[in-house]
Amino acid sequence: MEGPMTAKEVFINDHLTKIISSAFLPELLWITGYKVELFDDKNTRLTYDFMCHNNLNIGHNNILPWKLKTLGTDKRLFTLTEGQTEIHLPEHYGIPLMSNQRLRVDFQVLNHNQLPVNVKVKQKVTIYYKRNCEIAESMRALYQQSVFECKQVAGPRGAFDEKPTGKTDTLITSNDLLKLCCSNTGVEMKDGYPFRDNYSREFTGHWVLSDSLETTCTDVTRMLNLSTTTLVHFFSVHVHPFCKSLELIDNTTGLSIYKAEMIGSKGKVGLEVIPVKSIDEGILFYSNHIYKLISVYHKTQAERHSAMASMYLYCEEK
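The structure corresponding to this sequence follows.
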């Protein structure tokens, strides 16, 4: 899952300047959705076979519209990929941002299926938003928290930050580590991987798929880091080809909260559909419950492929 990538900084203020003739001060906006389309250098629409992923991020590392509550991604607003190229938050919900907030768009393309090929690929993104000054209805603020599968690569056996009870043994050698999918330089990315707990454990969120049906289960309670009961109104996921499903369960009650079942592309490598879940009234998450993420992959090719599995939760801000 490595392909050419680039990044670009954008300001919604730049777009507002084009549609508003008079000068204005930075204003409150509500981000409500995101879309990506693919074109070649002649502006002919391309299929999403060339899509790796596209991220919309907060560009300013230390200036965020909410207080961080997660141990996962700290700047991500949306991630789109093949099979999920447009998402919209529930009506009357949005992510609050000032119009002069710097945003960064990460663009990455990929080609698993068409060889030989010589094509330039452009990703066109659309950011959906509402101006607070133009809406009569009351908006409710959401923030994004991510949970993701991870595999332990070193340190004592156990979950993240679990106090060791037995011997400390190295679990996996460095030869088994996979260079992260977003790196096209041949050098492992250091942006949070491998991440470490307080007991010398190391984890990675990207790994090499086995040649058989593979189920991974991760305790994500610590990633959620909930301090109070929280309503979640929207779920999206980001996975690689050959993923069959990604499910978030409340391990305390035994209930499934959301199970995304992917539809793979027929006769080629890829994903046709990655579903989302939108709930106007929201689903309650409890600070004293245990939550687990379960992914199922089934690689049907002999070639080496990578895996990862993230679920993005859009939580109501209080």
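The longest helix spans residues 12-19.
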